[in-house]
Amino acid sequence: MTVPERSAFLARNHIALFDVIRSCEITGSSDSSIRNAVVNDLSQILSETKIANNIFVNGGKARDLYRRYTEAQTGIPCRYLPSTSPANAAWSLERLTAAWSEAVAEPLGVGITEE
Predict the structure, then answer these.
(1) How far apart, in whole angstroms, are the C-alpha atoms of residue 74 and residue 66?
(2) What sign results for the dihedral spanned by CA atoms 86, 88, 92, 93?
(3) Tens digits of per-residue pLDDT, 41-94?
(4) Which comes out higher in pLDDT, residue 61 or 113?
(5) How far is CA 87 from CA 26, 82, 84, 112, in A?
(6) 55/71 Cα distance (integer angstroms)
(7) Can you tell me the distance from the alpha carbon of 13 to that of 9, in angstroms, rounded to the nearest whole number?
(8) What separation in angstroms does the CA of 3 have from each of 9, 10, 85, 98?
(9) How far is residue 84's CA from residue 66's CA, in Å, rounded to a whole number?
(10) Residue (of 78, 86, 83) closest to 107 by Cα position
(11) What span, in angstroms and rounded, lies between the C-alpha atoms of 104 and 70?
(12) What's the pLDDT score for residue 52?
């Protein structure tokens, strides 16, 4: 999908994307090398959404940082999604798709449409 197609998909499905980490020192793309992480303030995006009762995180590092620095601020526990990083080679695309579909679509009580 192109970036505009991805944006349209997210809008159609009422999904907002936001990084937990605002800045950090990192070597390559390895989460284990993240140092001096500064987390984003999610208060603005949450205050501007109509209903935000589900927060999903992509990978263990995002989960750990969200829980440590942000969960108390939002009052919303995060839902863990397996990382889509190439570093997570143990998960095939099919396995990731199934895990994400179950974790995202079912709790929301909706299907995610691709059209």
Answers:
(1) 10
(2) negative
(3) 887 778 777 666 788 898 888 999 999 988 988 888 898 888 887 777 788 888
(4) 61
(5) 14, 11, 8, 26
(6) 10
(7) 6
(8) 10, 11, 18, 23
(9) 17
(10) 78
(11) 20
(12) 66
Q: Is the pLDDT of residue 113 over 60?
A: no
- Distance between CA atoms of 22 and 43, rounded to whole angstroms? 14
- The CA distance from 53 to 55, in Å, is 7
- Show Cβ contacts of residue 108 under 8 Å, excluding neighbours closer than 6 positions: 54
**Which tens digits make up the pLDDT trace of 4-30?**
998 898 888 777 788 889 999 998 877
Residue type, 34: I
68 vs 58: CA distance, rounded Å: 15
Q: Which two tokens stand for residue 30?
A: 């390895």
